[in-house]
Design goal:
Length: 302
């Protein structure tokens, strides 16, 4: 029965379990039953009951035990590839890091990126779905695939409105998300930032060694129709860097988000001394918090 639970489909498995338990009853009916045999029979029936319950739950998917898990893993891997930052031309360095609450493979924060075919434009969106960990994992998987399809397929000013309309059509009870969207010209370094209720992006000005906060306005995605999202423009010059992150990195129940951003900028000053290679991993390790999902995107113009 245990082997059948891994190999047989949900339609065949219940009949196999019932037939096996029936054969067990017939086999012991002719023998003398003592306490030891009664214990063994009870254990077999308990195992069979557990397998039947799991089979009925699995029948909604229609595949055998390990296949369903492998399908889910494959789906996660395929969609997570959209968070891989495409190869950038010389003079640019980027890094994206995502961590989930509790260390699971599913998180409510994700990053999607797209580069134009002529290598002149880069678009990146950092999104925080309501909820955290496995609770937001399914919605995050769906939205990362949808937002990845919208990114680069629409003009930059239409991405957040289209994402907002998509969320409204889902009609989820917890169907809201925050996002920050970057559209960058890789030739000149000119960029546009738009935000939907998300923590602001921050820029390091290499000339002065100071950090600047790019405050943008826009409602949370999935709450209101015909939303307007303001645009902040800027330029990344040689040596400059840009950080985009979710609130799980800078906000805790004991710390306000503004104080968290100040702490992030304080840690970010080390990037000038230690270099930007693996800088996002170092920053997220310094600000590690296991109570919420975290995502951080680092972009540096060398």
């Amino acid at each position: 029965m245990v082997l059948a639970n891994q190999l047989l489909g949900p339609r065949t498995l219940p009949w196999f379990v019932v037939a096996t338990l029936g054969m067990l009853v017939l086999a012991v009916a002719e023998d003398e039953i003592d306490e030891r045999r009664v214990g063994g029979i009870v254990i077999c029936f308990v195992v069979g009951l557990i397998i039947l319950i799991s089979s009925f739950r699995r029948s909604q998917l229609g595949v055998a035990g390990s296949r369903g898990e492998s399908m889910l893993v494959d789906l996660r891997e395929r969609i997570s590839k959209q968070s891989n930052i495409p190869d950038l031309p010389g003079g640019w360095y980027s890094e994206a890091v995502m961590r989930s609450a509790g260390g699971s493979s599913f998180a409510g924060d994700f990053i999607v990126a797209s580069k134009s075919h002529d290598d002149e434009k880069l678009e990146v969106a950092v999104v925080d779905v309501s909820g955290k960990g496995e609770q937001a994992g399914t919605r995050s998987l769906l939205l990362s695939g949808s937002f990845g399809g919208l990114l680069g397929a629409l003009p930059p000013e239409q991405f957040l409105p289209a994402a907002n309309d998509y969320l409204l059509r889902q009609d989820w009870s917890e169907g809201f998300a925050t996002a920050v969207h970057l559209s960058l010209d890789l030739r000149t370094g000119a960029f546009e930032l738009r935000s939907a209720g998300h923590p602001p992006a921050v820029q390091l000005f290499a000339g002065s060694g100071r950090w600047g906060v790019h405050e943008t306005e826009g409602p949370v995605l999935g709450l209101m129709r015909d939303a307007d999202f303001t645009t902040v423009t800027g330029v990344l010059r040689r040596g400059d860097a840009l950080l985009m992150f979710t609130d799980g990195l800078v906000e805790t129940p004991q710390r306000d988000i503004s104080l968290g951003i100040d702490k992030l900028l304080g840690q970010g000053e080390r990037l000038l001394r230690l270099g930007f290679e693996q800088g996002a991993n170092r920053l997220i390790d310094e600000l590690e918090s296991m109570n919420d999902d975290r995502a951080l995107f680092l972009l540096h113009r060398r």
